[in-house]
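Session log. Operator J.P. requested a structure for one protein chain; no other inputs attached. Running the standard single-chain path with token output.
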Amino acid sequence: MHQPAKPLDKDSAAAPAKIDTERGKFIRKITSLIIVAAAVLITLYVWGIIERHPRTDDATARANVVGIAPRVGGQILKLNVRDNQAVKQGDVLFEIDPEDYKLMLEKAKAELAALDQQIAQADSTLRRLEPLLPKHFTTAENVDEARTKLTTLQAQREGVLATINLEELHLSYCKVIAPFSGRVINLNISAGAHVTTGVPVFSLLDTSKWYVIANFREAEIRHMAPGSEAIVYLSSAPNQRFRGRVQGIGWAVKPEGEIDLPPSGVPYVKRELNWVRVAQRFPVRIEVEDPDPDLFRMGASAVAIIKGPPRK
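Structure written below.
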């Protein structure tokens, strides 16, 4: 006769559930440990990358700037450029009134013509007296005097020739030309203004070569050297990267709080950030190999990353 099944007791029914619970806890612990370990490994890996490949956003784009100063003074007759205009090497930037220099050149040439006449007369006199000396129709003193006069006039002629060359040079300086291709900046003058020798009228930005001055923490500069590969990009175009190389690492910055009198020319890099004192930074000059002339502007914010050791 069939016997009805006996019902399971509570302990027997709870055992599998307890095992599943303990197994779940164990799996969660293992998963948590794996996640923590992975996070630590990733952190160490990222830290290693940052340590080996320093990065800074304390950087700016730079280019060489030359003040365009005339080599002669005078009134500007013609101004051929405007502010921010691109110019090519050899272009005439502006012209200075040449009339004063033309007059000085003509005066020097007139002096030369008059001097040549005197030299011709002195030479004729000497040639006339020299044959008379052996015949005692003149004295040695007369011959010496004529020879000295000719020599003196010839020496004066060399001086006048030098003056003519100088005045011709001054006249050529009345046309101020671009020493290199670039872009006119800080132009605040117009035709009719008087310019002074050696005083810049405006500046010319050399757009043929760009570099980035990046300030790296003092502990990071040991990971770079002249020739180290770098990547730079501008804050205005973060998706466009440019290759570069470290050209040099600054060896001096002005100490914090030191008064720079007289001016020493040593760069100053601020050591405070939001009232928090930070490690000293040193300027690193990175030459950009493939700059985009339409993107790079003097003083533009940039980011620099050191990618590798110096190239061999």
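Operator note: The two ends are 97 Å apart (CA to CA).
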